[in-house]
Amino acid sequence: MCQDAAMSGANGFLMVGIEEGRQELDFNSICCKNNMSSIQLVRPGSSDRRIADLAGMASSFLYVVSSKGKTGARDALPKDLDDAVARVRAKTDLPLVVGFGISNPEMVKRVSNLSDGAVVGSFLTDCIMKNEGKVRDEDVIFQKIVYLHRGTAQDIGAKNQALNYIPSVFARQGQLIHQKIIYVTCTSV
User: Fold this and answer.
1) Residues 181 and 149: beta-carbon distance below 8 Å
2) CA atoms within 13 A on the CB side of 70
3) Which of 43, 83, 87, 159 has the smallest number of Cβ neighbours within 10 A?
4) Of 41, 32, 43, nearest to 61 (Cα)?
5) Residue 8 CB coordination number (10 Å)
6) Does residue 120 contact residue 148 with C-beta atoms inside 8 Å?
């Protein structure tokens, strides 16, 4: 699967449902062999040991999950998100991105002031579904990216300034990285 994905232009995998331990390590090894990023999810409530383990397996960045529960656009981010990101930051020098529920420029701004990027997925998927083919999906996504981008301007005292580098594995054609927002498309394989 990794080899086929790499040949198709994919940059990495965010795998959910893999058991901690051997299965996780095996999948990470396969990703590395195929020059694919194995994107690790740091979930709310992860122990310090678990965060360190995930940081050790990550090859490009860590994805900090902002809130418990299912993915999907939300009205607000958790109040303790600053502390959660700081806990992860203390365990690694890798870039951190925050996702789950980001759906407006204010959320992007808060996340941009805490981390290296915001991950937006469900919000864009919802916008495409609501469009029902009236406008090209690409146009809908572009409009929503412009809307979300308003939140990328960081405050002067931001805890982590925007990255000056993008890991080469994410600089390949097809990956949409636009000033601290990573847009994800989800596919069942």
Assistant:
1) yes
2) 3
3) 83
4) 41
5) 8
6) yes
**d(Cα 98, Cα 112) in Å, to the nearest integer?**
9
Tokens 């331990």 belong to 21
Residue closest to 169 by CA, chosen among 114, 94, 65, 87: 94
Instruction: Please tell me whether the overall predicted TM-score, pTM, comes out greater than 0.70 for this model.
Output: yes
**Residue 45 · residue 67 · CB < 8 Å:** no
CA 39/CA 54 separation, integer angstroms: 9
Residue with tokens 């303790």: 80
pLDDT tens sequence across 90-109: 999 999 999 988 989 999 98
* Strand ranges, E, within the chain: 12-14, 37-42, 62-65, 96-99, 117-120, 177-178, 181-183
Question: Scanning the structure block, which residue is given the tokens 């109040």?
Answer: 79
Are the C-beta atoms of 66 and 88 separated by less than 8 Å? Answer: no
Q: Are 97 and 162 in contact (CB under 8 A)?
A: no
Residues of the chain below pLDDT 70: 154, 156-189
pLDDT of residue 63: 93
Q: Are 87 and 55 in contact (CB under 8 A)?
A: no
Tokens describing residue 123? 């919000």
